[in-house]
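queue> holo job accepted (5-O-phosphono-beta-D-ribofuranose)
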Amino acid sequence: MSNKRIGIIMGSDSDLAVMSEAAQILDEFKVSYEIRVISAHRTPDVMMRYASEAKSNGLQVIIAGAGGSAHLPGMTASHTPLPVIAVPIKGTGSGHEALWSNIKMPAGVPLATMPENGAKNAALLAIEILALQDQTLAKKYADFRDKQHSKVQALDSQVSKDWRGHLKA
Ligand code: RP5
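queue> job finished
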């Protein structure tokens, strides 16, 4: 049994630049995670085992990122009762295929699909889920939201002050 709460998985190490943003958020909140490269196409046996054993290994949420046909998030969800959050990876030059692949899960197996490359929000959603049963984390998350609120208000004051009196042509 692992002591990690979140599993971050991705189809290729080429997804790491995006997926490491989820890890950074979890680091900030001091939420334990493991990070793995597991491919639905190239290592389907590993994917199936990882997903089937994730809950008994102590994981509570899985964040799965993949590009291209992007089967990893949906197939992982199909092998676990844990909430799975998909991050469709969009590289330069690729289209929206990963987003469509993830967001069009047929009814019966839910997949919480983030925007393309939305790894930060994937981590925040995972934190919201864990915070339902974790008061310490819930407090940290509330503080984070408060800080964000104050920051936008400060920016609002600054921008409205700087632009006072400017007339549009
Ligand atoms: C997917 O194919 C991966 O998730 C990655 O986004 C994409 C390309 O993989 P590489 O060819 O860079 O390994 O399976």
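queue> The chain has a mean pLDDT of 96.
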